[in-house]
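Lab notebook, design round three. We kept the backbone fixed and only want residue identities now. Task for the bench partner: fill in a sequence for the structure below.
Input structure tokens:
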């Protein structure tokens, strides 16, 4: 699969060559980065860091030739690392100098970061191809930026970025491994049905797979360079720190909370210890959102733990293409959430166990066109399966951070977008927009990874595939008078979660399976031999055979579920995009991605049966769909989701404000822009701010007091 995808992408790049002239140099290198990410191992937290470091290089190369912007790293001390700079000589053509410096910096950084990638040769040749296309000699290694050479400046910036990376706590020299981590639970061997092994259901449990690959399709055991593995995805580290390939997952990024953030403040960092292991955490959602199963008496927050995972099992049945239910999946009927749950109890009203919906009621009118949103009625199963796969790792497996970079490109290319930073001030050139937008977005995603993975390591929350099997192995917790009762079991839901009885097709020889728990759910990846021609469908299965909507060689991500990384990434990005553009809506009031009925997109089975267009009115609508898709697909429980959304919004806001402080000298101490002709407290631009009737042009569109409802009498 990786080879085929690479070939298609390479051909697309070659045929698109005449279009490159229409792109900025930043976009060319970002496109090359996305291709490299698609071919690389699936490590979203690592990819977010690479994106941010590349954007730092672009921004500092921009700022070096700008009178107003302040550099981020060049001539500064960042998190204990200093990049000395005696000053960059002025040049006759700043724009040409910027393009050259950016290219040399990008070439050095990306070549270093993807040198050990499974498709490193292809990536390196593409990086060189960009240099050659623009007439740059990639063999120029000069660091003498004081001579006035933009190439030397780019090389120097890259050197600083790479050295900063070696000191930021990511363990890049260990290939991002954490040799100190030991999982609480023994591995669960997926392919061999057996009694559930001793495990703590409140903690993540590694999976043991016969043929283990990452989401991008790479057998990690075959990917070595200089004797060192590419990823901790399926590695086991012995007590001496030596790596063994066992087909067993290892928790990715347990140390990531200790990576230096962009906008995080030291006073906000906490250190948590579990045994001999210490974990840093920046944004703690609090234990009140993390239910614990009392394995003996079912007390405390056990009922919330049980309900959350039972919902995941019940929603799995909705992935059946034989289901005749149809949804209007346009912004007319979906999105526009007004509030998120404040606690565990509130989750029950937010997630509809029967329908698979959230409370989002949609919007009648597109506020940018004034016209009604057109309805789009499709099969519910087609929509859910398409949404799950679209958001899983991006449409081309570029990981969630790369997915949102691609969405930034989509937004930037829309004719309705006016490229003003925060929707205010002067229209930016395409290059300045790409530099500043890319910096802000990638900073938000980088910080989201640090914040989310800090929480993941701190709580080490279980994934549905192991929690559900544990609960079902204990029995049912609904009725003490029924067979197989245990207070730490799973609640029965008629038509979804039931007991196997005598005469049941699942009872087995001599009724050996009678009394076990069964789910009416998606039958799993092992029910499909040819994913381009078959569907698994839904039906009654033993709970011990339940799987999330993933391939048989991946099953579940190699890190804890709490909090949802997708929710954190998506809401950080959506918040950053809303603030970047000064508008919560996609340009024209509609964002869209069409998925054809070509039986290739779903990867795990045939479908969708008809074209499905994923549509969103606002960036937050898109982020909410991304977050919900992880529950639809069985990768996360609701209690993973909502705290991840909240964390992402907080991180996205902080990253935007700090980035603005670098870009503009007239940004206030909180990083909120203040121009002479506008007031930044307009609620349309800053959700939650009060609407003002102050005689000012609050949203900088040339009209005074144009808030809704209209101001009257100066009030």
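Proposed sequence:
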């Amino acid at each position: 699969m990786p080879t085929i995808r690479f070939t298609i992408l390479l051909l697309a790049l070659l045929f698109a060559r005449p279009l490159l002239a229409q792109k900025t140099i930043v976009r060319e290198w970002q496109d090359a980065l996305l291709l490299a990410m698609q071919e690389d191992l699936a490590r979203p937290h690592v990819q977010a860091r690479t994106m941010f470091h590349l954007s730092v290089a672009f921004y500092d190369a921009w700022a070096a030739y700008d009178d107003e912007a302040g550099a981020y790293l060049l001539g500064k001390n960042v998190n204990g690392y200093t990049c000395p700079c005696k000053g960059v000589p002025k040049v006759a053509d700043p724009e040409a100098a910027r393009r050259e410096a950016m290219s040399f910096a990008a070439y050095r950084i990306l070549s270093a970061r993807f040198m050990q990638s499974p498709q490193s040769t292809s990536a390196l040749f593409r990086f060189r191809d960009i240099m050659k296309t623009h007439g740059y000699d990639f063999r120029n290694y000069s660091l003498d930026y004081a001579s006035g050479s933009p190439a030397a400046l780019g090389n120097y910036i890259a050197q600083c970025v790479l050295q900063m990376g070696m000191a930021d706590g990511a363990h890049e020299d260990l290939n991002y491994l954490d040799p100190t981590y030991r999982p609480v639970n023994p591995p669960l061997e997926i392919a061999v049905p057996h009694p559930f092994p001793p495990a703590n259901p409140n903690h993540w449990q590694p999976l043991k797979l016969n043929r283990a690959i990452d989401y991008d399709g790479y057998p990690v055991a075959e990917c070595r360079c200089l004797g060192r593995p590419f990823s901790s995805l399926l590695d086991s580290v012995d007590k001496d720190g030596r790596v063994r390939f066992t087909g067993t997952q290892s928790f990715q990024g347990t140390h990531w909370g200790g990576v230096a953030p962009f906008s995080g403040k030291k006073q906000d960092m906490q250190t948590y210890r579990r045994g001999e292991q210490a974990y840093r955490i920046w944004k703690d959602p609090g234990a009140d959102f993390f239910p614990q199963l009392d394995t003996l008496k079912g007390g405390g927050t056990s009922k919330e733990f049980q309900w959350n995972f039972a919902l995941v099992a019940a929603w799995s049945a909705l992935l059946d293409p034989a289901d005749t239910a149809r949804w209007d999946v346009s912004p007319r009927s979906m999105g526009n959430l007004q509030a998120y749950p404040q606690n565990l109890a509130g989750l029950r009203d937010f997630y509809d166990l029967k329908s698979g919906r959230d409370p989002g009621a949609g919007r009648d009118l597109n506020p940018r066109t004034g016209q009604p949103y057109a309805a789009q009625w499709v099969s519910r199963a087609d929509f859910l399966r398409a949404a799950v796969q679209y958001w899983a790792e991006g449409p081309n497996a570029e990981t969630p951070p790369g997915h949102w970079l691609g969405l930034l490109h989509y937004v930037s290319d829309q004719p309705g977008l006016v490229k003003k930073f925060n929707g205010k001030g002067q229209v930016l050139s395409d290059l300045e927009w790409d530099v500043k937008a890319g910096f802000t977005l990638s900073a938000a995603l980088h910080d989201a990874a640090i914040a989310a993975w800090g929480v993941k390591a701190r709580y080490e929350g279980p994934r549905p595939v192991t929690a559900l099997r544990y609960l079902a192995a204990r029995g049912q917790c609904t009725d003490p008078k029924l067979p197989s009762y245990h207070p730490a079991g799973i609640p029965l839901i008629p038509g979804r979660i039931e007991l196997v009885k005598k005469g049941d097709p699942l009872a087995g020889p001599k009724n050996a399976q009678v009394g076990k728990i069964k789910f009416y759910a998606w039958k799993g990846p092992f029910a499909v031999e040819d994913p381009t021609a078959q569907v698994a469908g839904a039906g009654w299965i033993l709970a011990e055979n339940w799987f999330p909507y993933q391939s048989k060689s991946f099953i579940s991500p190699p890190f804890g579920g709490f909090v949802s990384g997708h929710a954190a990434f998506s809401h950080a990005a959506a918040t950053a995009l809303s603030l970047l553009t000064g508008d919560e809506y996609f340009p024209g009031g509609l964002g869209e991605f069409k998925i054809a009925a070509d039986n290739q997109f779903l990867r795990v089975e045939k479908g969708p049966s008809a074209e499905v267009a994923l549509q969103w009115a606002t960036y937050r609508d898109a982020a909410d769909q991304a977050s919900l898709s992880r529950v639809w697909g069985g990768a996360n429980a609701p209690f993973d989701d909502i705290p991840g959304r909240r964390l992402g919004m907080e991180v996205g806001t902080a990253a935007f404000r700090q980035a603005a402080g670098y870009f503009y000298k007239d940004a206030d101490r909180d990083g909120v822009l203040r121009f002479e002709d506008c007031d930044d407290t307009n609620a349309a631009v800053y959700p939650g701010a009060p609407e003002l009737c102050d005689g000012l042009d609050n949203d900088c569109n040339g009209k005074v007091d144009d808030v809704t409802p209209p101001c009257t009498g100066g009030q």
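Keep this in mind before ordering anything: The radius of gyration is 26 Å.
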